[in-house]
Write a structure and sequence with these properties.
3% of the residues are buried. This protein has helices at residues 8-24, 29-46. The longest helix has 18 residues, at 29-46. The chain is elongated. With 60 residues, it is mostly helical.
Length: 60
């Protein structure tokens, strides 16, 4: 069975790999775009899972 989305560890590895590749590029617009994409991957890898309501008294 094939997974539809990579798990959290795979996303971390992909983000780290993209950042390393971006850092190896010579300075310029291509490197800047690669760093931006690596940053977006890192943000999506760090995004929390589902958010659940806190138990207890409801908010006013």
């Amino acid at each position: 069975m094939k997974e539809t989305a990579p798990d959290r560890i795979d996303q971390d590895i992909l983000a780290a790999d993209a950042l390393e590749r971006a850092r190896l590029l010579p300075p310029g617009p291509e490197r800047n775009e690669a760093l931006k994409r690596a940053s977006l991957l890192r943000c999506s890898a760090d995004a929390p899972g589902p958010v659940f309501a806190k138990r207890g008294r409801p908010r006013k």
